[in-house]
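At this stage, I wrote out one protein's amino acid sequence and its backbone structure tokens, and that material follows here:
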Amino acid sequence: MFDFIPLEFYTAVQYHVLFFIALLILVHAVTYNMEDQSSVLFFRILGAVLLIIYTLYIGLRPVSGRFFGDMGTYNSYYKSLQEGKNITVEKDYVFNYFMMACSRVMSPQTFFLLIDVLYILPCYWFSRRYFGKYWFFGWFMFIASLSFWSFGTNGIRNGWATSIFILGLCFYNSQKLLMYGCFLLSFFIHSSLLIPIAAFAVSALQKNPKLYLYVWLASIPLSLVAGSFWESFFSSLGFEDRTSGYLTNNEEALQQFSQTGFRWDFVLYSASGIVAGYYFIFKKNIKDNFYIHLLGIYAIANAFWILVIRAAFSNRFAYLSWFLLAAVIAYPMLKYKIWKDQYRILGTIIFVYFLFTYIMFLKG
């Protein structure tokens, strides 16, 4: 469908289009009223069109290990299944058995499209569930997040698992059993979801948002002083082999991910969620149990990543909190009246939020 776009420009086109839409949101926010019905209708239509096109664009991307990382490996594995080769499943049971079932009835391209539909739709449902008629702005922040594209094209197991976790949060105030079922499902899609699930449990037991902030702040000096200790410590707790390798900087992992070390730029990016939570809860007095719990999940999971930030592939641990960053920042702005010029401030925040993602893409 998008074969006319050269493969080497495929990712760039996505980022440039999203930049144009972020700029459109900013200009519209400065010019119009958020509550104007024509504005609501405009973004509903734009959101519906973008939802369809974006899902098809990411799902129908060409199969390429060179430009989309692990996609080449998944494609080879999928073709092996189609050829009838026996493969032993020892982990991530839902993903692997799902792939086996799909290999009997559909092509690899259709499989990748289906995975990305299941990756993108939960973010849309979350936005519709909590933001109502303003769902487009929340959903756009999800897809504008750093690494969202990467985990829809490269680390697709991680990406799908985090979206099922987001789906679970849609049932937070209604059907708890469905929520826990989604959490369990996300774990069996990719076992790394144990980290946000554990963060959910801890923040359910301890509901003091100040404590979340203290934990996050404490993780920075603890990582600076004893970074290698935390990598070895968490590795010794029984993480599965590949995750253990990510933590202990094995040679193969280092060859594939060169940007190791203490990444202050990523810490500052993560801090945006912490600052937002502090501002909305303590300065604007937002006493929303779901939001406080959401902040707790994010802060605890992100603190874990900061402790192991020097590890190879630490970006995969970062995403175990970053996938919630858009929700942490957007939720109060789209649920409550906070500022007099709310739409203008919202548009500015959305633009700046995506600008970091865009700059990181341009830096390569």
Notes: The chain has two domains: 1-189+341-350, 192-323.
